[in-house]
Design brief:
Layout (H helix, E strand, L loop, with lengths): L6 H9 L4 H11 L1 H16 L6 E3 L6 H12 L1 H11 L2 E5 L3 E5 L7 H6 L2 H6 L9
Antiparallel strand pairs: 1-3, 2-3
Pfam families: KH_NucS_shadow
Protein name: SCO5389 family protein
């Protein structure tokens, strides 16, 4: 299960739309590493050079942290919630490397390079084979 859903959020979903803030809070509580990583990368991007197109993590997370990243970024709903909350476009390689791009950089040469087959091949490591 990806999220620990509170009964009140479940009731919201059963009768209509889910409040975006409530959903984001559920993501933050259920997937704290993934949420905090996206939050940190978005802050790094925002506080840096305005010409900088993206920020990414370069360290390998633990197995549990990788699991959170997989659950967060494999779900369109969770991924979209994170993108809207932090005003970024997410990109994902393997189970450990996440990048946040400025929305206007989506589709740029830098973005296309990060999500390319070449980048995927170059970002391989035996330690991440089974993640």
């Amino acid at each position: 299960m990806s999220l620990d859903v509170a009964p009140t959020l479940l009731r919201q979903a059963e009768v209509g739309e889910v409040d975006a803030e409530d959903f984001a809070a559920t993501v933050a509580a259920s997937l704290p590493y993934a949420y905090a990583l996206v939050e940190k990368l978005a802050a790094d991007l925002e506080s840096g050079d305005p010409a900088r197109e993206f920020a990414d993590n370069v360290h390998g997370p633990t197995e549990a942290e990788r699991g959170q990243l997989l659950r967060a970024l494999a779900s369109d709903a969770i991924r979209g919630s994170l993108e809207r909350r932090f005003g970024v476009k997410l990109a994902f390689q393997n189970c450990h490397r996440v990048a946040v791009f400025r929305p206007e950089a989506a589709g740029s040469q830098t973005h296309r390079g990060f999500i390319s087959e070449r980048a995927q091949v170059l970002n391989q490591s035996p330690e991440f084979r089974d993640c």
